[in-house]
Design brief:
The N terminus is likely disordered. By secondary structure, the protein is mainly alpha-helical. It has 10 helices and no strands. It has a single domain, classed as Orthogonal Bundle (MetI-like fold). The radius of gyration is 23 Å and the shape is elongated. Helices cover about 75% and strands about 0% of the residues. Helix 4 packs across helix 6 and helix 6 crosses helix 8. This is Osmoprotectant transport system permease protein. It is a multi-pass membrane protein. Its main location: membrane. Belongs to the binding-protein-dependent transport system permease family.
Length: about 240
Amino acid sequence: MSDFAPAGDPVIPDYGVASDCVVNNGFFCADWFAAQWSSVFLPPLLSHIVITVIAVVIGFAIAFTAALLAYRRKWLVRPVGLVATFLYTLPPLALFQLLVPFTGLTLVTVEIALVCFTLVIIFQAVLSGLASTPSAVKQAAVGMGLSPGQVLRRVELPTALPAIINGLRIATVLTVSIATIAAFVVDDGLGSPILKAISSPFNTQFIGAGLLAVLLAFVFDAALVLLGRALTPWTRVRV
């Protein structure tokens, strides 16, 4: 039986004896998916995780630092917010295209773009979380002799944690989805098997890679929910 993909770039690897599902191009052939898991799906899944984690960690470090500075120096809120919002509104493919002349068709281009899309979400989440601390609580902390740095660490940041975690959840899920488009720049991540499958009439590779991207977003989101609960046990105390 011949490959479904054009010669030179087969979408379906050599699978030996094909099942009826593969022969008839069923909606989703679980047997083919399982057989090709380690060669077709696992490597891009792992690289997708790495790409996402790197972008979110760097984006969080930049946005968190900028939010702390803006919280202390209010005049920075507007200019930093405008820059972050502008970067967020750029279409992903357009931003990739703008970066390629400087950083080439590399993972660096992908990471820069993904980091840009996380900034406004995390920046606003940190700011809104810090601003949610009641003024009476801060005044009480100052009255107890705490310095501004101690008030930030012991009062404001713990109060802001739920909002920060929610911002991280949104930024992470967004990064997982946009990272699939990165296959137009580098042959990496779950977007790679998706892009290759587009040129083929075979359904399973396209659907399988797409489902993995959706499941990965759910897993990241659930992990951050659990992290938020672990870091803020007081939010679960019933009065």
